[in-house]
Amino acid sequence: MHAWLKRAVAGLLSAVTLLGGGLLTAGTANADEIRMPDIGKTITSLTASAATTYPRELVNGDFDYLPAGGWNVISPKLNTSRGKFTSVDPVNGQYIRNAHVADGNVAWVKWDGFDASKFGWISDQKGGKPQGFVTDHANSVELQRDNDTDNTYAEIVGSENGKSIYQKIDTQNSADAVYTVRFDHAALSSEYADGMQALVNGKPVTMTRIGGNKAGDKTGWTGTDIVTHATNTDHYRHDGQWATYEGKVTIPANTPVSTFMFKSLNEAKPDMGNLIDNLTFKIAYRLSYDANGGTGQVPSRTETGRTETAASGTDGTVRLAADKSAGPESGTTTDDRRVLTDTTARQDDGTSQRTITRSDGSVRVETIADTGAVSGCQVYYPAGAKITLATAKMDSDCWDSSQISKTNRTFYGWSANTDANDKDVPVADTMDRATLDANAETQITMPARAKTVYALWAINPTLTYDVNAPAGTNAPVAPASKTVPYNTAATDTSGWVAGDAGKITGYTFQGWYTGKDGAAKYDFTAKLTSDATVYAKWTANACTVKYDAGGGQGSMPDQKFTFGVPQNLTRNTFTRSGWAFTGWKRADTGDAYQDGQQVANLICTPNGGAPFVAQWTPNAAAINYNANPPAGRTAGGQGTANWTGHTGDTQAIGANGWTVDGYTFIGWNTSADGKGTAYAPGTTWIANGTLTLYAQWTPGEAGLTYDGNGATGGKTDPQNGVTDQKVNVRQNGFTRDGYTFWRWDTQADCRGKAVNPGDKWTLQGSSTLYACWAGVARTLTYHGNGATGGNTAEQSGHTGDELTTNANGFTRDGYTFVRWDTAKDGSGIAYGEGKNGVGRYTMKPAGNDLYAIWKANPATIQYRNDWPNTTGSTPDTTGNTGQDVTIAQNGFTRPGYTFTGWARDRRTNPSLQPGGRYTLTPGTTTLWAQWKADPAHLIYNSNSGSTSQTRRTDGVVDQTLTVIANPFTRTGYTFTGWNTQADGRGRTYTAGNGFRLVADPKSNPVNTSVLYAQWRINRVTLKFNPNGGTGGYPDITADAFTTVTIPADAKEPKVQRPGFRFTGWAMKPTPGAGDTILSPGKGTVSMPDRGSITVYAQWAPAMTTLPFTGGHAQVPTIWLYAGFALMLIALGVMMPMLRMRMAATKRTGKHMPITGGKHAK
Questions:
Q1: Taking the complete model, does pTM exceed 0.85, yes or no?
Q2: Strand ranges in 700-746 using DSSP code E only, listed in sequence order
Q3: Among the residues of 567-713, which ranges form H helices?
């Protein structure tokens, strides 16, 4: 049998139900009374609970279930003119032997070991028609064998036309399910075009031809009435004649049994035609997404709360995950962009290409990697399919969480929980992260039933503000609470600013903290996964009056005030020359106060200070100016006007208005000889009394300078002095190439006054002497000025000769010759520009040198940085080769590091600084940023509450420090290590570990890390000492500092002492008068910080009551033990006396009581 797919048997028909006759008509699976073609038994109201068990899928779809020995047993005789065929009676377990051979002992025979549940098929034939050479039975099914391929197949038309073969299938499902039916169909021969239908519960299924044949039946045909052609003429040779058909049908929920029927419509003859083989089907179950109380659209394009009516015939609108080429998805889209086609094609590289077209004309193509899981955007899936649920992200699948919402909730994913009855159940909304993470599923495996996944909602946490106002104050209205999406930070929306002293009079708001005690500041960047409350922290304002002299002299100590407590201001002790004190004035509020005034409810500025400034009334003041000329001199000019005003006025010192020949005014002084206080014109004087200022004079400066007058080297220092000072003329210190010094002259052309070295010279202002030179024959020299090749010949002449300059003969790599110039930098006189250097030149007495001037090619400096964690950029510096440029400022940033400069290598000390100068070289020069690590700190915090201590270790960013051993102690606790968080939820360190210092600009100081000591409270033991008794009570272990109650059963009989009674426990073996006796069940013991503590059993002698004449008496029981011993001895002595006493009693008739009888208790 060449079957394209073999299906396993999923169910078993009861053998006892196939022993009778009858007929189930297609489409009557739910009839009130059905005559089953099995044992003739009538089953009323067929439901899912019917006694008959049906398979979950088609059985024997390849028709390979044959008697042992196969066709050699069914038709042992060969008829060469015909093929082999037979009819099978599934009700009676028989088949026709040698049906194709007229003389071959044709007969219905028993099928040994026949199992109707494995054969599966039955027909609606009535029987009685010829079949081969016998009469056909009712409900029989005809099988045939292909003469070429030995393939076994069925012929729908056995002995009666218009009939069907069928099977009943268990289709009980809690939700609609899609069944994909596939089979091969062939016509009997080329003379006929056979037609048939596939029906489910009596309704035709729309089939699509997915495999063609030799007869030209092409793929793609769709319809309910199947017609297949053939090219063969032999009725038993069908190789290549089969066409494959496939269709889908949605069976509604709670349909317990369905009939899958294959009916002949058009056949070759009344007793032959419509061949069928390889029947299979696949079941796909509905995957539903439930919003779990949310609103909006869920995946699979189905609307929340909408119930879709399943198709009873074909499913043209549903989509199966197992069939990527199925039609568009069901449901609607909110934007009216209906999906027209959604196909997925397998690629050669193992991926799949998905193409989606919509009603608005848009097309999206995406590549899907083969992960073994299918998209969760379909409607139906086969059992066992791995499904990636629709993601909440805005990616390429069908859905994202923006399409669904729930009040005060955040979508967390999908849950796939089931209860004990395998029923899908939602997870209640919660804030618990562990519950959410434990229930969030991204992938499921499809069960063999409908599956519902529920939206998993995280309850949005709320941040609440608590004003936490100090007692007795008027609390401001608390800011509104803020609810944020789950696992996001709640930013501070209070609008309150730390340092605000205006919300509660006398208090300053310090910020929001995690507790009422204000121990830890709340981190508004922390992500919330539960409700949180933040508490305002307040500090009482301290007010200090700071006394300011207000221009006066002296000092007064600050005076502290408490808000609401009356107190007198300190009396003024400031003094101010020329001023009278009038009282105080607050600099911040402008309020005026009298000296010594009583003040109450003084409110300070936020920094805690109240500035009180002394107030003064000014006296009259003046400035008088004096020309004060030098001795023997007379002052000229307009002079400087005097000024009058009042003490405290601000007045600029006047400009000098006098002149003295030969002298320069240098300022004012309060003393004529200049030994007082100096004042410069324009400076400010705060008026106080009368200020007399004297002009100060100094002889005018004079100097003699020497001009080289064409010198090419050397120098002659100038001579400086004052007017009329005598100096000796200096010797010449200049040199001039090609010249000899002659003398000095007062004119540059040497036609003025001749002066020789050593002559006397009187200084008058600024004078210049010029060197005079005698010229000689000279040579005009050409310089390459950076040339890399070539030469230009010199030219000879004398000073004043006019020459024609030579054309340039030099070359310079990367440069173009421009001209000759008398200066190397081209700033001198140019010659021959544009003429290759040819021009006119006059020989000079010296310095006959011409330099080649070159035009440089462009050059660039690029700035680079390859250190980690660096951002930013620095623009290139461009120019020309040889150009002197400014090194650019650094544009890079590196947290925790300070830029130190630029270097030509990636890792070296910087050689260049921003703003420095650099000469460009040809091409591109790369400069690399260099950095120095900033200081960083590691603080060790004892983490012991309000008494926490710290210790700091310093280093630099990225330096690894060795974690120190614990230097702190904490009574009642044992140190367990270090952690980056006070609550121990950060990273743990132990002594000797390496700790890398990191950059942190927000810390104080910056780049500061903190390690918090971690502590474990000590466990201590309470011991019970019987203290002379026996027995005991088990030790009790508890935390240090806790209070332990003596157990109620810590008494007799667990501890005993013969002759004594237990009275309780004490902290000492023998407690004093003031010590407490601890009663079991009531007494408490305060546990120590470490080790153990012992309580001691307390005992008192046990008391026994004895009867005596006239009453009772109690004696310690222990005495009785000793008394018994003495009594036994005494009885031996007293017995004769007792007998005598008893005899006397009998004689007198009186009763004599005997003490010491039985114990009363």
A1: no
A2: 701-707, 713-714, 719-722, 726-728, 734-735, 739-745
A3: none
The answer to whether residue 1022 scores a pLDDT higher than 60 is yes
Q: How far apart are CA 1045 and CA 1083, in angstroms?
A: 6
Cβ(459)–Cβ(430) below 8 Å = yes
Which one-letter amino acid corresponds to residue 633? R
Average pLDDT, the chain: 83
Three-state DSSP class for residue 274: coil
pLDDT value for 1 = 37
Q: State the DSSP H helix or E strand holding residue 1148, giving kind and residue range, or none if neither.
A: helix 1117-1148
Closest CA to 279 of 230, 244, 308, 235: 244
Q: Bigger pLDDT: 1149 or 201?
A: 201
C-beta of residue 245 within 8 angstroms of C-beta of residue 182: yes
Mean of pLDDT values over 1108-1126? 50
Residue 362 — very low, low, confident or very high, per pLDDT cuts 50/70/90?
low
Rg (CA), the chain: 59
Token pair of 1041, please? 């500092």
Task: Please list the helix, strand and coil fractions of the chain in percent, rounded to the nearest 5, in that order.
Answer: 5, 40, 55
Question: CA-to-CA distance for 593 and 1100, rounded, in angstroms?
Answer: 80
Closest to 159 (Cα-Cα) out of 97, 96, 66: 96
Residues 6+ apart with CB under 8 A from 134: 96, 99, 106, 107, 108
Question: Greater confidence, 557 or 1130?
Answer: 557
* Integer Cα distance of 156 and 279 in angstroms: 13
Pairing of strands 507-513, 482-483: unpaired
Reading the block at residue 155, the tokens are: 């012929």
pLDDT for the residue numbered 98: 85
The one-letter amino acid at 604: C
Say how far apart CA 1081 and CA 1029 lie, in whole Å: 20
Dihedral sign for Cα atoms in the order 384, 177, 15, 143: negative
Q: How many CA atoms lie within 13 A of 320 on its CB side?
A: 22
Q: Angle at CA 356, nearest 5°, toward 212 and 385?
A: 70
- Dist. CA 539–CA 911, nearest whole Å: 53
Secondary structure (3-state) at 1079: coil
151 closest CA partner among 269, 71, 213: 71
> Which burial class, exposed, middle or buried, applies to 491 when counting CB atoms under 10 A from its CB (0-12, 13-18, 19+)?
exposed
Phi, psi torsion values for 1139, nearest 5 degrees = -65, -40
Q: Are 486 and 507 in contact (CB under 8 A)?
A: no
Please, which residues have CB within 8 angstroms of residue 1156's CB and are 6 or more apart in sequence?
A: 1106, 1127
Which of 623, 688, 613 is closest to 652 using CA atoms?
623
Q: Which of 413, 417, 511 is nearest to 466 (CA)?
A: 511
| Nearest in space to 569 (alpha carbons), one of 552, 592, 590 | 592
Cβ atoms < 10 Å from Cβ of 564? 10
How many Å apart are CA 1064 and CA 1062, to the nearest integer? 6
- Using DSSP's 3-state secondary structure scheme, residue 1090 falls into coil
The amino acid at residue 478 is A
Tell me if residue 401 falls in helix, strand or coil: helix
Cα 857 to Cα 786: distance, rounded to the nearest angstrom: 14
Report the residue count for the chain: 1161
123-137, 335-349, 963-977, 986-1000: range with lowest mean pLDDT: 335-349
Contacts of 372 (CB under 8 A, 6+ apart): 386
Mean pLDDT of 684-697: 91
Q: Return the sign of the alpha-carbon dihedral for residues 891, 892, 897, 901.
A: negative
| Token pair recorded at residue 555 | 């000092």
The C-alpha atoms of residue 1037 and residue 1026 are separated, in whole angstroms, by 18
Q: Is the peptide bond before 1034 cis (omega within 30 degrees of 0)?
A: no
173 conformational bin, left if phi > 0, alpha if psi -120 to 50, beta if neither: beta
- 471 φ, ψ (degrees, to nearest 5): -60, 140
